[in-house]
């Protein structure tokens, strides 16, 4: 039996899973680590923490599974995107990594836009400049820590730092590199034009591979540390969402997934590149060679319901503890008692600004239509519907771009809710499904390793062999007709409130 290893370097922790070639998880280990916030709006992590978690996780799953090291055919890496890791000439980490959610780079976003030009930047990198991308972080260090920038000889993304530690190779792959805003997305290579205009030396960047390609092999020292066999291949892997797509089988045209975690993501596969000139959605290279994905983001999806639960559902949380159930089980039950439209109550899920389709950091959440008739259960239903309307906004942009969205998978915490999945099916007008395997990104990159090492001949073939559908929610015509009327009202809310949000931000 052949085995494959998936390592997912997340923000809260690193999850390592050993699979057999059929995608069955043999052993899993997760190690957490801290997030540092030295100033308001800053977010940093220590790459050494990621490495320690990786070493411990690999050691654990090999020991727990009893799998012979010689039968572990390959390793795939996934992880948080956009983080900046800087190494000096001795390959030592210069400073803590500035990670994806850091917001210190607003001045650099303006600088990048001015130097490259908004339209040209979108043409090349398929996205407008935003604070989350790596390019803005590089420019911030250049502007604010010139001594660190001068020392820098290598720039890596979080999972690619782990690759370097495993193999000694400086390498990245197209899906994660897409989030740096330095890659020519149509050409799948570093953009000399963007690098020149920003004054970033190309030699600092790693070699770019396709996601299933072998990028290096495990060194003798790492083999002794972990129990792996020296020479075990490490493939390119993928950024977290691109890895999740492979792990849910979203690797052919027409397929997509919706994640409802703290944020919400609608991710659609396309074999033809499509770029939204308005910058409402992100177009990145995906983990399938010579294909792309388009991704819309709702900033406060599951976060909206968590905020409501934590602040207004104390009795439900206490009851849930006594019953031994998840509090969201009770909020689902409450929402199911309320009709579509939440008794004429609407919710705008913009608690922390919005990405798709409005790109407005000033947007904020709001209940519209509150009256004395409304109860807590109406508000819960309104929150769930408001998030669903926002995710429908993402799908509408994709359809405007002629991207086929007709087969939708659901994942993330919200994806476990049958009610929420039914809302999405009714609003999208297509089936919404779950998969039997819940390992997501770790499984996705393990399958990329299986392709890179010859167990499967292509990413679609690997997914067809391994990914199995579980629950399916089909759209209900009567529900769809009711939701469409409410959604039409929802779409009017942001344009009516945009200027008010801007004025509110100035108070």
CATH homologous superfamily name of the largest domain?
ATPase, nucleotide binding domain
Overall 3D shape: globular
Roughly what fraction of the amino acids lie in strands? 15-25%
Rounded to the nearest angstrom, the distance between the terminal CA atoms is: 64 Å
Task: Describe, in plain words, how this protein is organized in 3D.
The protein is of the alpha+beta class. It folds into two domains: 3-242, ATPase, nucleotide binding domain (Nucleotidyltransferase, domain 5, 2-Layer Sandwich), CATH 3.30.420.40; 250-438 and 476-507, Nucleotidyltransferase, domain 5. Helix content is 41%, strand content 21%. It has 18 helices and 24 strands. It has a seven-stranded mixed β-sheet. Strands 3-2-1-5-15 form a five-stranded mixed β-sheet, with helices on both faces. A two-stranded antiparallel ribbon has the order 4-7. Strand 2 and strand 3 (25-32) form a beta hairpin. Helix 2 (106-116) crosses helix 4 (134-144), helix 10 (240-247) packs across helix 16 and helix 14 (376-400) crosses helix 15. The longest helix has 30 residues, at 477-506. The chain is globular, with a radius of gyration of 23 Å. The model has no long low-confidence stretch (mean pLDDT 96).
Topology diagram in text:
Blueprint: E1 3-9, E2 13-20, E3 25-32, E4 44-45, H1 47-65, E5 72-79, E6 85-87, E7 97-98, H2 106-116, H3 118-125, H4 134-144, H5 146-151, E8 154-156, H6 158-167, E9 171-173, H7 174-177, E10 183-184, E11 189-190, H8 192-198, E12 207-209, E13 214-217, H9 220-226, E14 233-235, E15 238-239, H10 240-247, E16 254-260, E17 264-270, E18 282-285, E19 292-298, H11 302-312, H12 314-323, H13 327-336, E20 346-348, E21 366-368, H14 376-400, E22 405-411, H15 418-428, E23 432-435, H16 441-452, H17 459-466, E24 469-473, H18 477-506
Parallel strand pairs: 1-5, 5-15, 9-12, 16-22, 22-23
Antiparallel strand pairs: 1-2, 2-3, 4-7, 6-8, 10-11, 13-14, 16-17, 17-19, 18-19, 20-21, 23-24
């Amino acid at each position: 039996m052949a085995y494959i290893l998936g390592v997912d370097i997340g923000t809260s922790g690193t999850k390592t899973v050993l699979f057999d070639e059929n995608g069955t998880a043999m052993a899993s280990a997760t190690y957490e680590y801290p997030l540092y916030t030295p100033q308001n709006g800053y977010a940093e992590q220590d790459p050494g923490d990621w490495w320690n978690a990786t070493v411990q996780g690999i050691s654990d799953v090999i020991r727990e599974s009893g799998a012979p090291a010689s039968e572990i055919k390959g390793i795939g890496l996934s992880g948080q995107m956009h983080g900046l890791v800087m190494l000096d000439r001795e390959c030592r980490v210069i400073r803590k990594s500035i990670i994806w959610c850091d917001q210190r780079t607003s001045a650099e976003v303006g600088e990048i836009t001015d130097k490259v030009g908004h339209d040209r930047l979108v043409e090349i990198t398929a996205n407008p400049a935003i604070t989350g991308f790596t390019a803005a972080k590089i420019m911030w260090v250049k502007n604010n820590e010139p001594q660190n920038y001068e020392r820098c000889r290598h720039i890596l993304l979080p999972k690619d730092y782990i690759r370097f530690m495993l193999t000694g190779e400086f390498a990245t792959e197209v899906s994660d590199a897409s989030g740096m805003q330095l890659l020519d997305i149509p050409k799948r290579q570093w953009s000399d034009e963007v690098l020149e205009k920003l004054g970033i030396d190309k030699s600092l960047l790693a070699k770019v591979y396709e996601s299933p390609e072998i990028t290096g092999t495990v060194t003798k020292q790492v083999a002794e540390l972990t129990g792996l066999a020296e020479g075990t291949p490490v493939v390119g892997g993928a950024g977290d969402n691109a890895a999740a797509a492979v792990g849910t089988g979203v690797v052919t045209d027409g397929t997509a997934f919706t994640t409802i975690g703290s944020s919400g993501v609608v991710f659609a596969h396309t074999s033809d590149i499509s770029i939204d000139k308005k910058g409402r959605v992100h177009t990145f290279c995906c983990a399938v060679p010579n294909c792309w994905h388009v991704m819309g983001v709702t900033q406060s999806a599951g976060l909206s319901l968590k905020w409501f639960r934590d602040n207004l559902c104390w009795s439900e949380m206490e009851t849930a503890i006594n019953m031994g159930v998840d509090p969201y089980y009770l909020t689902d039950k409450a929402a199911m008692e309320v009709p579509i439209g939440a008794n004429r109550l609407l919710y705008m899920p913009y608690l922390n600004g919005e990405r798709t389709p409005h790109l407005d950091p000033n947007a904020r959440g709001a209940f519209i239509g509150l009256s004395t008739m409304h109860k807590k259960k109406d508000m819960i239903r309104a929150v769930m519907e408001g998030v669903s309307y926002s995710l429908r906004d993402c799908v509408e942009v994709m359809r405007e771009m002629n991207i086929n969205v007709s087969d939708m998978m659901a994942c993330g915490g919200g994806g476990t809710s049958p009610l929420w999945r039914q809302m999405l099916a009714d609003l999208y007008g297509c089936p919404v499904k779950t998969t039997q395997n819940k390992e997501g990104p770790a499984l996705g990159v393990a399958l990329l390793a299986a392709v890179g090492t010859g167990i499967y001949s292509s990413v679609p073939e690997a997914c067809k062999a391994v990914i199995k559908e579980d629950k399916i929610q089909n759209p209900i015509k009567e529900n769809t007709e009711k939701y469409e009327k409410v959604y039409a009202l929802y779409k009017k809310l942001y344009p009516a409130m945009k200027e008010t949000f801007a004025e509110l931000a100035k108070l």
